[in-house]
Give the backbone structure.
Amino acid sequence: MTVEAKICGLSTPETVDAAVAAGAGLVGFVTFPRSPRHVESLDLLKALGARVPSSVIRVGLFVDAADALIDARLGTGAIDMLQLHGAETPERVAALKARTGKPVMKAIKVAVPADVDRGIAAYAGVADRLMFDAADGTLPGGNATAFDWTILSGRTVPVPWFLAGGLTPANVAEAVRMTGAPAVDVSSGVESSRGVKSIELIRAFVGAVNTL
Ligand SMILES: O=C(O)c1ccccc1N[C@@H]1O[C@H](COP(=O)(O)O)[C@@H](O)[C@H]1O
């Protein structure tokens, strides 16, 4: 089984290089000022994106962002795909896809099984990918909290999808076994302290995924 790994919340050249070298299929850059992973500078975003080979997808994460903010970030050339992690409606997803020409991944917050049903019904027709993430936490994501993975056991999701929320090098194999996830995303689980990515943990996470 080939499982794709995305390392999210990267903000230094060294950790971007580590994720790419380890074999991550996607890397994520956060634009959300309340996040400890927020990449504020457009110059830094441009420089980080420029380090990534074209074989790796560069994902720009946004939370209920205005068009002008998204456009400024896209203008750096550092983003191949949008990840929408707020309360964006299906209409907003469709409008952003049409306006930017970029593929869009929509995050669905999961606490109970009906959240998955509702997320698929609302977004599978408009988003290129879905991401199922935990609903708990002080931020809209990146909280190191997992949801009950049995909610996804045996589910058919009609578009490519990611499992996220509380994943670590130690639990990702079990998470994939229980959910059947074809792709996984991690932020806190590869950090030595909040917002500080660890090269060792990035290697361990992608290594664990690559053995599946
Ligand atoms: O990472 C963040 O700071 C963040 C902020 C706002 C919305 C989403 C965010 N991250 C996403 O959340 C998932 C799960 O994070 P974690 O592994 O549980 O820390 C992460 O994969 C990002 O896609």
User: Anything to note?
Assistant: The chain has one domain: 4-207. Residues 199-210 form the longest helix (12 residues). The longest strand covers residues 104-110.
